[in-house]
């Protein structure tokens, strides 16, 4: 599946193979009975995105977000932390006051 250019008035058909290819790239398992629904949904999404090419965007500045992003940072003030006993209360396998987790790569 190569790049698909958006053209005004041209319907974009998504094949079953396209759906399976995208699912594999995204490491998604799509049940057999869902493939047709996903194919239709992806087609509708591409059709909606393709409508943008019908607009005159010559005076519109490129942007990564439609709205300005503003971070609202809270002041970093020290405060008491959760007691260790409370933090480990529901841990399935606490050892020596710490969480026990599987080794990386096992």
Low-pLDDT stretches: none
C-alpha Rg, in Å?
A: 24 Å
Q: CATH superfamily of the domain at 1-57, called what?
A: Glu-tRNAGln amidotransferase C subunit, N-terminal domain
Which second-level CATH architecture of the domain at 1-57 applies? Orthogonal Bundle
Q: What percentage of the residues does DSSP assign to strands (E)?
A: under 5%
Q: How confident overall, as mean pLDDT?
A: 85
Q: What order do the SSEs take from the amino end to the carboxyl end, as H and E?
A: HHHEE
Euclidean distance between termini CA atoms = 35 Å
Model description:
By secondary structure, the chain is mainly alpha-helical. The chain has a domain at 1-57: Glu-tRNAGln amidotransferase C subunit, N-terminal domain (Histone, subunit A), CATH 1.10.20.60. It contains three helices and two strands; from the N terminus they run αααββ. β1 (94-95) and β2 (98-99) form a beta hairpin. It starts with 15 loop residues before the first helix and ends in a 7-residue tail after the last strand. The model has no long low-confidence stretch (mean pLDDT 85).
């Amino acid at each position: 599946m190569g790049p698909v250019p958006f053209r005004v008035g041209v319907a974009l058909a998504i094949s079953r193979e396209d759906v399976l290819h995208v699912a594999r790239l995204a490491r998604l398992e799509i049940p057999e009975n869902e493939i047709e629904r996903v194919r239709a949904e992806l087609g509708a999404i591409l059709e909606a995105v393709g409508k943008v090419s019908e607009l005159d965007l010559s005076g519109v500045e490129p942007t990564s977000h439609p709205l300005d992003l503003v971070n609202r940072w809270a002041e970093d003030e020290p405060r008491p932390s959760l007691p260790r006993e409370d933090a480990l209360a529901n841990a399935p396998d606490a050892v020596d006051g710490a969480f026990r987790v599987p080794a990386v790569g096992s």
